[in-house]
What we know:
By secondary structure, the chain is of the alpha+beta class. It has helices at 8-12, 73-86, 100-110, 121-129, 137-142, 153-158, 184-189, 201-211, 229-236, 262-276, 291-296, 309-317, 354-364, 367-375, 385-388, 391-396, 398-409, 422-437, 443-458; strands at residues 4-6, 44-46, 60-65, 89-94, 116-120, 168-173, 179-183, 219-223, 300-305, 323-327, 341-347.
Amino acid sequence: xxxxxxxxxxxxxxxxxxxxxxxxxxxxxxxxxxxxxxxxxxxxxxxxxxxxxxxxxxxxxxxxxxxxxxxxxxxxxxxxxxxxxxxxxxxxxxxxxxxxxxxxxxxxxxxxxxxxxxxxxxxxxxxxxxxxxxxxxxxxxxxxxxxxxxxxxxxxxxxxxxxxxxxxxxxxxxxxxxxxxxxxxxxxxxxxxxxxxxxxxxxxxxxxxxxxxxxxxxxxxxxxxxxxxxxxxxxxxxxxxxxxxxxxxxxxxxxxxxxxxxxxxxxxxxxxxxxxxxxxxxxxxxxxxxxxxxxxxxxxxxxxxxxxxxxxxxxxxxxxxxxxxxxxxxxxxxxxxxxxxxxxxxxxxxxxxxxxxxxxxxxxxxxxxxxxxxxxxxxxxxxxxxxxxxxxxxxxxxxxxxxxxxxxxxxxxxxxxxxxxxxxxxxxxxxxxxxxxxxxxxxxxxxxxxxxxxxxxxxxxxxx
Length: 464
């Protein structure tokens, strides 16, 4: 695989402006959407003018969608078409991304939840357990989407619970830190080698040390996050042997956190050494609360992100410097760390229009929708191989074509607790591991505390 070099002029031909948010804060910044967006404050707007639709029906489908970072673009575009074709009114209703988890649960209880709802792995499974999402296996058997076989098997498996399906993938991330962006201009000026496909974690650390200037506030590398379970897990899975799961931070059964194992001590030592030598930044060094701010400002040589960083960074950097990107390095034994996370579309199990909602859900889960997510929404494709390998998609974001090889091989699942209590477990993990990253606690003294606190949550029963 060849290295990607990008300039603003090369990358932005024909592309509308978007922006890249702080992944560590679990929110994405607002972007300029190429379609009419709903009004703020949770107000609703029909997806299209009724004059463009056939004879109106008495059916209205309400669609929950976050307004940030182009997430509502595809649902609005295809909602307009669906309304024009069927006469069924489609209303896109804003829900701020950071409020979706709570408002989905409260809306279901109050009977005000939309017909089509939006999810992320963090709360996807617990909401299904609570009965919020409609199971769709019978519909997949009797009336599947025409292009259903085009979806990567590991993606549908990664969205299912106990063998049951209830969603279609909307945005797919093969890993939370899967793309390492680099300041090509800085590295070349320093006479340093550029990152190459197949490089190792030690190669990265060596490059970062050579590029860093601690006395001048120049850092060598940064992660979108190393504090959440799924972001840390994407990195830790690069260690260990390729055919093992020894480096997973949660066991495959989702019943135990494994951070006190020797392999995580090795990983933690690798990263804390970079932090203590100021090759990697700590929270006090961040710009606008993130390492991404340092990279955009030209104060950091390399930055690991989700794949959409490859699109967003050139738009923020402009002509200040040239950047490139490669996959997250492999570990000492050649293991490529992956970790599925993403967003999904589901049907409210209490919808009064299940048949109509299914037809709209199929459209939102189509390969065409995946292409629109990239070319119009400036995000990442859904689970369709045809979207990840589409020539226009690969031309728009080279790293999507590179990551398609990972998806073909099958990416590893999201680290989901068996009891589905991810948000609770993740909050505990974040609070405790940050004490290590900030130098307040050592691994030896605090790893057992992290394991104890998170495992207390993993030992609880599934919610009813």
